[in-house]
Amino acid sequence: MSGTPKRGRPAKPHRTSWGAHINGLRRRKDGRWVIIATGKTFAEPDERRAVARFRRWEVEQQGETVADVNAPLEAFQSAAGLAAAREAGAEIYGHTDGRYSVGTEVSEPVLWAWLREQLISRPEYVAEQTGIPEVARLADLPKPEPSPTLAAIGQLYHDKAQVKRKQRRQMQLFWNHFREWLAEHNVETLRQLTPSRVAEYGDHIRATEDSLKYVKNRFTSIRGVINFSRKRGLHAADVRHALDCCAVLTAPRGGVRREPHPIDREHLEALVAHVEAPRMQAFLLCMLNLCMYPSEALNLDWGEIDLTKKTVVTDRSKTHIVRVGVLWDRTVTALKEIRPSNAGSKQPVFLSKLGRRWSEKTANVQFRALRQKAGVPTKVKAEDLRDGAYTAAVEAGVELTQAKLLAGHSTGIPDHYAQRRPTMVADAVKAIEEAYFG
C-alpha cells in the first residue's frame, strides 16, 4: 500500500504548527495525509481540520460512532423522516419554529471528540450556537506569555525607577514584605494575584500597623511598584490585572490627624542661640527658610542650591512637585560654612561624619540634644519649623500660591515655569523671616 511506511523505518508523528505531536498521523510531501495504522490517505489543506478528522477516526476505532449533531436539524423536517426516526426508537424534540431534532445517546468521549472537531473546523458555527463570539477568534489568539514574577517586578523598579535613594529604599522595603507574605501563600507571579488574597494582606497590615499614614504609604508604594512596569511598556495585561486586585488596598478612614504645631519664636531663638555645630545651624535655617520637613531638608543636593542667586529649585519627594525658594542672607552664610570646596552637584548638602547623607534618625537625635541644652520643651519637634514657616506666610496675607509653591503643594503652575521663576515666592520667604527674626 502506497501509504504504508517502509519496513524498519520508525513511524514519525506529525508535528503541528502549534507544537503538538500527533502520533499516528503524518503528512506526505504532496500534501496528503496518511493514517499510519491503515496506510489510508486523505486530502485536507487545512491542518486543523486534518487533525480533527484523524481524532474522529481514532474514536470510531474504539467502537463508537460520532454523531453529527447538526444533521437532525436538517434531515428530519419531512413527515416521512420523522416517522422513520420514531420507528427506530429515537426521541423527537419539537421546536417553536417548526423544526424538529432527534435525541441520541452518545458517550462522553464521543461528545468531546465531536465538540473538539467543531471547535477546530467550524469555530464560527460554534460561536454562533453558543453565543460566545470569542470562540471564533481562538485560532488568532497569541500564545500566552509567562507572567512576570513579583521578584522581577521589584527588581525592575529598583534598577530603572528615577527616584531618590530614600524613596527607592522605602518602596523596596514595602514591596519585599508584600512579596514575602504572598510567597507564604504560594503566590509568586502577578497573574496568580486575586482580590481575596490581596484583601487578606490588607487586613493583616491594618491589624498590625498603628500609623494610618504608614499604612497608606505602604499601600501606595505597592501599587507604584506594580504600575512602574506598565510605564516601561511591559506586561500590560498582567499589570492591569494586578492593579485591579490591589484596588482593595485602602487605608482605614479616620485615625488621628496631626494638627499643625508652629514653633514659637522664643523657642526658635533659644535653639539658634545654643546651636554650636555649623551643620545643625544650617539644618534649622533651611527647614524654616524653605518650609521643609527634616527629611526634605536632608534630601537637598548642592546642585539644587544657587548661593550666588540665593535661590533653591528642588522637588518634594512625597508629591514629586517642583518647589522653589529664596534664601535669606543668614541661610546663605550658614550653607557656605558647610559647603566643601569640591562639592559636586549630586553631593548631599548635609553630610554625616562618614561622608554619607545625614540620616533623619541621627539628625533627630542631635536636635533633641540641642532642645535639651536650650531648655526648650520636649513637645517641640523638628517638623514644627515647617509648620511655623507655613503659618507665618499665610498669616502675613501673602498670596496663597506662594506659600504652596514654597511648601511643595500643587498649585496648577507648570513645573517648568516655576523652575525658571524661583523668586516668585520672595514675599512668602520675607514674611517668614520677619515673623521670626524681624
Give me some keywords for this one:
438 residues; single chain; elongated; 49% helix; three-stranded antiparallel sheet; mainly alpha
Give a verbal description of the structure.
This protein has 438 residues and is mainly alpha-helical. It contains 19 helices and ten strands. The longest helix is centred in the middle third of the chain and has 20 residues, at 212-231. The termini are far apart. Residues 65-77 have low confidence and may be disordered.
Strand order of the largest sheet: 3-4-5
Structural class: mainly alpha
Count the DSSP helices: 19
Beta strands, count: 10
The ordered string of helix (H) and strand (E) elements is: EEEEEHHHEEHHHHHHHHHHEEEHHHHHH
